[in-house]
Amino acid sequence: MAMLPPVDPVVLQHNPNFEVLYKDLCSRKLNTDGSTRDTKKQRIHDEIRKSLTIARTNLLSSQLLITSLSDLPSKASDLPPELHSIIEIVTAQLSGHVADTDREILSSDVTHFLDSISTIATALSHQLATIATLLCNIATAAHPNEPSISTSALPEKAAVMQDEATHQLRRDLSEARTNLTNTLSTLLTTHLSLLDSSIRILEQTQHGALSRHTRSSAEHLHARATVLGLQAKIHSISHAPPAEFLAALKEFKRAQGSGERALKDREALARRELDVYERAGGKGLRDLAGRKRVLEREIERVDREIGKLEEGGDGRI
């Protein structure tokens, strides 16, 4: 019906036959998505879907009961101890872990289980109620400020959460994808503007008028400096220096010459003093060597005399 164009209620009031046709199309001939409705096929599909739902519900209920029953001995503190082993045996049999040939052997345990079914059912009900309470707490965990829902409202809450997961989240994802696409488009537009500005700046600074102006200015300054250098050289060649400048140069040269002669005289005097020192030092070293030889001969003579005295003393003894 959402695919059909809206009709003004005034038009429907003035055309009763069209109103009947329009309502028939919306209710029986077309689906909500605008496709043609096949009533017979849809009835068959609805029956199959209903049977499948019932089968899935029964299967999940059986699995839930078997799982809860297997956990019952360890979680039900008020359960009699003699029922623990019986519950485990029955749970194994329900799970298909017991062979058909062993069923007769375990028939007494099954009978005892059936006799105590009221006690087991009560403990199992308490266990399932505890699980339902935990599920209620989990269902409201996203909103801690809200009060916890009751177990009777849990199916409705589960239906709402399923609808959110299958429809609302899908719509949110679609909206987020649209926003992401718009953001990406904006980003690409901004990037294009950035590239345009970068190209314009590069053209102005490196390849454009600004770069050419800077290069022309540098070449102009270089040419001016060259011209000034040539002008200075021409001026120095064509114009003789003044007399005062020449006199100052001569005086400076004369002062430099007298200073050079004084330095040479000092150098010659220093060399003569060095020669005198070397000659005097050589003679002193020769005198010291002669005295050393005299002392060495005197020491040898004294040593010989001491040796003779020692030999003479030994002979007398």
Automatic annotation (TrEMBL):
Superkingdom field: Eukaryota
Record's keyword annotation contains Coiled coil: yes
Assigned keywords, A-Z: Coiled coil
Coiled coil: 285-312
Protein name stated in the entry: Uncharacterized protein
Organism: Neocucurbitaria cava
Organism ancestry: Eukaryota, Fungi, Dikarya, Ascomycota, Pezizomycotina
